[in-house]
Amino acid sequence: xxxxxxxxxxxxxxxxxxxxxxxxxxxxxxxxxxxxxxxxxxxxxxxxxxxxxxxxxxxxxxxxxxxxxxxxxxxxxxxxxxxxxxxxxxxxxxxxxxxxxxxxxxxxxxxxxxxxxxxxxxxxxxxxxxxxxxxxxxxxxxxxxxxxxxxxxxxxxxxxxxxxxxxxxxxxxxxxxxxxxxxxxxxxxxxxxxxxxxxxxxxx
Length: 204
Description:
Shape: globular
Distance between the termini: 47 Å
Strand content: 25-35%
Largest sheet: 6 strands, mixed
Helix content: 25-40%
């Protein structure tokens, strides 16, 4: 069966994850993607009763199906559709959490083109209903990861819509966001930041 992304690019399958021993000895250069790190982190949170966060499944559009038997159907071709909202959602300490995760190889700014209008609208709605909403941004070339509250992202988005710059400068992310140091268990402990900025727990 063939899966394709929007635009026709074929899905190549999941990247192999390095062994735990390799991660432990050379974590800073391990080559893990942001999604892999977050999936591992969320699994750690669930297993330890910290939070229930899941990655939303990517919707699939089926375009070709064979019916070799009346009782069986074989999908021959399908496309990954563009997600309608954000990547992750769940609950922590009774509060709804919703966030998007993005990566860039740019070292000085984060391009706003990485976000879509419908995602921005979704984040705005979450904030209006008092949900916790943010984005996790990774500068892959620098191996730096930040949490940026959605209210700041909306401000930068509005600036772009008004004819301003089409990216968020790295120094702005450093000013308004929160640096997340990489670890091993879990790799991206973003709940510590959530606890600090949304629950006013300065001791974390």
